[in-house]
Amino acid sequence: MTRAEMRNAKRQLEAALLRAYQSEVTKFQEQTGLSVTSIEIGITSTTTPGGGVEESHVTGIHVMVCL
After folding, report:
1. What is the DSSP string of 6-28?
2. 59 CB contacts (<8 Å, ≥6 apart)?
3. How far, in Å, CA of 1 to CA of 45, rounded?
4. In this predicted structure, what is the pLDDT of residue 30?
5. For residues 62 and 37, is the Cβ–Cβ distance under 8 A?
6. What is the pTM of this model?
7. 31-50 burial: b if 16+ Cβ within 10 Å, else e
8. Burial environment of residue 55 by CB neighbours within 10 A (0 to 12, 13 to 18, 19 or more)
9. What's 35's DSSP letter?
10. Phi, psi dihedrals of residue 34, rounded to the nearest 5°
C-alpha cells in the first residue's frame, strides 16, 4: 500500500467515525435539548520502520455543546 493509499484510508476512517458519532450526537440533542456545535476526532497514525504497517489510534474526541 502506498503512502497516498494509507492517507486515503485514514481519511475514510475519520469520516466513518464522524458519521457514527453524529448519530449519537443527534440522539443526545433530541434527549437534552442542548445543541452540539462541533465534534473533532483526533487520530494519530504511526508507520513501522520500512513503512510496512500503519496503525491508527483515536487520541481524543472534543465535543462543544452550546448551553
Report:
1. HHHHHHHHHHHHHHHHHHHHHHH
2. 42, 43, 44
3. 15
4. 92
5. no
6. 0.54
7. eeeeebeeeebeeeeeeeee
8. exposed
9. E
10. -85, 155
pLDDT tens, residue by residue, 10-28: 788 888 888 888 888 888 8
Mean pLDDT, all residues of the chain: 80
Amino acid in the structure at residue 63: V
Q: What percent of the chain has pLDDT over 90?
A: 6
How many angstroms separate the CA atoms of 15 and 55, rounded?
Answer: 17
* CA 14 distance to own-chain centroid: 4
Give the C-alpha separation, 4 to 12, whole Å.
12
The confidence score (pLDDT) of residue 67 equals 76
C-alpha cell at 62: 472534543
Nine cell digits for residue 67: 448551553
